Amino acid sequence: MQIEVVKSKIHRVKVTGADLNYIGSITIDEDLMDAANIIRGEKVQIVNNNNGERLETYAIPGPRKSGEITLNGAASRKVAVGDVLILICYGTMDIEKAKTFNPSLVFPNETNNLLT
């Protein structure tokens, strides 16, 4: 049996931008992506702690050490700059492997979204 489990999580980052005119996605500081084991184009679930919105899009890397978290396209309507988000990616694996799997959990500085 295959099940879906949390593979990667970036916990409590602040939105730094919202760009309605971009074609879609979420731009994430590439340092955060690397730390959380998230790759370019990977599906990301976004949980907005400020308004309860949940949505899915895909990740694109932003400049390193920038702390950038920008929602692009239609997703930009679901956030405001300064909102606190949780970003989650999932993986599918055998249930026995899932029992011992350790996800990549990242807890950046909540003021500037940088790794400490």
UniProtKB/TrEMBL annotation:
Cofactors demanded by this protein: pyruvate
UniProt cofactor note: Binds 1 pyruvoyl group covalently per subunit.
Compartments, as annotated in UniProt: Cytoplasm
Gene Ontology MF terms in the entry: aspartate 1-decarboxylase activity
Domain of life, source organism: Bacteria
Pathway, per record: Cofactor biosynthesis; (R)-pantothenate biosynthesis; beta-alanine from L-aspartate: step 1/1
Modification comment: Is synthesized initially as an inactive proenzyme, which is activated by self-cleavage at a specific serine bond to produce a beta-subunit with a hydroxyl group at its C-terminus and an alpha-subunit with a pyruvoyl group at its N-terminus.
Signal sequence extent: none
Protein residues bound to substrate: 57, 73-75
CDD domains reported for this sequence: Asp_decarbox (cd06919)
InterPro entries: Asp_de-COase-like_dom_sf, Asp_decarbox
Recorded catalytic activity of this chain's protein: L-aspartate + H(+) = beta-alanine + CO2
EC number: 4.1.1.11
EC class name: lyase
Keywords: Autocatalytic cleavage, Cytoplasm, Decarboxylase, Lyase, Pantothenate biosynthesis, Pyruvate, Schiff base, Zymogen
Residues modified to Pyruvic acid (Ser): 25
Protein's UniProt keywords contain Lyase: yes
UniProt entry tagged with the keyword Cell division: no
One Pfam match: Asp_decarbox
Annotated catalytic residues: 25 (schiff-base intermediate with substrate), 58 (proton donor)
Recorded family membership: Belongs to the PanD family.
HAMAP family, alphabetized: PanD
Subunit and partners: Heterooctamer of four alpha and four beta subunits.
Name the UniProt record assigns to this protein: Aspartate 1-decarboxylase
Organism: Maribacter chungangensis
Lineage: Bacteria, Pseudomonadati, Bacteroidota, Flavobacteriia, Flavobacteriales
